[in-house]
Amino acid sequence: MTTTADPSQTGGFAVVVVAAGSGTRLGRGIPKALVDVSGKSILEHSLERIEASGVTAAHGTWPAGPVVVTVPPGDTELTAVATRHGVRAVEGGATRAASVRHALEQLRSAGCSPRGVLVHDAARCLTPAAVFHRVAAAVAAGQGAVVPVLPVVDTIRRVDEEGSSQGTVDRGLLRAVQTPQGFSWDLLLEVNDAAAGERDERITDDASLVELFSEVPVRTVPGDEAALKVTRPMDLLLAEAILATART
């Protein structure tokens, strides 16, 4: 049985919400984070889940952590959503890594020194509070980099450039990575500074930066199936079904 971290031990974290994606694969013609899911935008759902989790709340001598949302250049609508929720918005960059770097600069320029930082995809808008708690608790306990994961259930095959099968990969050693990903403040600043200007195709998330630009191990905690990433129309249907089930 998976144990849930004590919420009272996971406050004082800053959160970077990545919401600068175009949403091309959803096919709605608007930024993904603005797409409606059961009456609220994806970004609204994400911000509500973060607030409800309590990870930014003050704990002991730790002050409440700030939240920064990265938005597309020239955006006004997502910025308005962020403002209504009392959080900051900053224009994202050309890549996901650049967007996170912009948010970290916003935090650093404001003199922020949080207990740790959680980097969260707005598209994982239904992530349960327990996942936030598990990641934050692991960072608070001294882990420098932590990601939530799920076992891979599909059979995975390697293929060559012509599409011919090169054998089955042992899925017992594979995990699908979710967000929020958690980091110590100093480590996340260090690897982002080191990666500035890099366009390495191996940089797919913030844990990739840690693996490429530090010797700190990336640890894992259990994720949750509800923390799916809304990327395609089918994902949107699943998210709406999850919310409908929760209301019954």
Order of helices and strands: EEEHEHEHEHEEEEEHHEH
Average of the residue pLDDT scores: 91
* CATH H-level superfamily: Spore Coat Polysaccharide Biosynthesis Protein SpsA, Chain A
**How is the biggest beta sheet arranged?**
8 strands, mixed
Structural class: alpha/beta
Number of separate domains: 1
Describe the protein in words.
- It catalyses: 2-C-methyl-D-erythritol 4-phosphate + CTP + H(+) = 4-CDP-2-C-methyl-D-erythritol + diphosphate.
- Keywords: Isoprene biosynthesis, Nucleotidyltransferase, Transferase.
- Belongs to the IspD/TarI cytidylyltransferase family. IspD subfamily.
- It comes from Kocuria coralli.
- The chain is α/β, with parallel strands linked by helices and 248 residues long.
- It has a single domain, classed as Spore Coat Polysaccharide Biosynthesis Protein SpsA, Chain A (Alpha-Beta Complex), CATH 3.90.550.
- It has 7 helices and 12 strands.
- The strands form 3 sheets. Strands 1, 4, 5, 6, 7, 10, 11 and 12 form an 8-stranded mixed sheet that branches.
- Strand 8 and strand 9 form a beta hairpin.
- Helix 5 packs across helix 6.
- The chain starts with 13 loop residues before the first strand and ends with a helix.
- The mean pLDDT is 91.
Provide the descriptors you would attach to this structure in a database record.
248 residues; alpha/beta; Spore Coat Polysaccharide Biosynthesis Protein SpsA, Chain A; 8-stranded mixed β-sheet; two-stranded antiparallel sheet; 7 helices; 12 strands; 20% strand; globular
